[in-house]
Specification:
By secondary structure, the chain is an alpha+beta fold. Helices cover about 15% and strands about 35% of the residues. The chain has three helices and nine strands, in the order βαββαβαβββββ. Pfam families: DUF952.
């Protein structure tokens, strides 16, 4: 089976339902990282699983925000992580909730790992 490339206009932000509800103000989502780091941490499709397992180990449930970058009002930059050397998308400014095209609940496996994979059919 041929695997198609993930859409370039989609990025993902991993959070929890509680954090999403806490930091959603009117039509914007402004997590703590926006104040602390100056941007909102995101991942591309192939980075989601490793990010979830690295940054959210010990959680039982996550909320994966699917973001349409063409609908963003804030600037997006792909920047190199100093630890891994990989480039990750960062949103510099609030995330307009209209750019969130889906919210996916992700449950941890019995061993605590998150298994998140995407195959594009388009």
């Amino acid at each position: 089976m041929k695997r198609n490339k993930m859409r370039d206009d989609l990025i993902f932000h991993i959070t929890t339902e509680e954090n999403f509800n806490t930091f959603k103000k009117n039509k914007n989502y402004e997590p703590e990282s926006l104040d602390e780091d100056g941007f909102i941490h995101c991942s591309s499709g192939h980075q989601v699983e490793s990010t979830a397992n690295k940054k959210f180990a010990g959680q039982d449930k996550l909320l994966l925000l699917v973001i349409d970058v063409t609908a963003l009002n804030s600037t997006i930059k792909y920047e190199k992580d100093p630890e891994s050397g990989k480039k990750y998308p960062h949103i510099y400014g609030p995330l307009d909730t209209n750019a969130i095209i889906d919210k996916i609940e992700v449950l941890a496996e019995d061993n605590g790992d998150f298994k998140i994979g995407f195959i594009s059919k388009t």
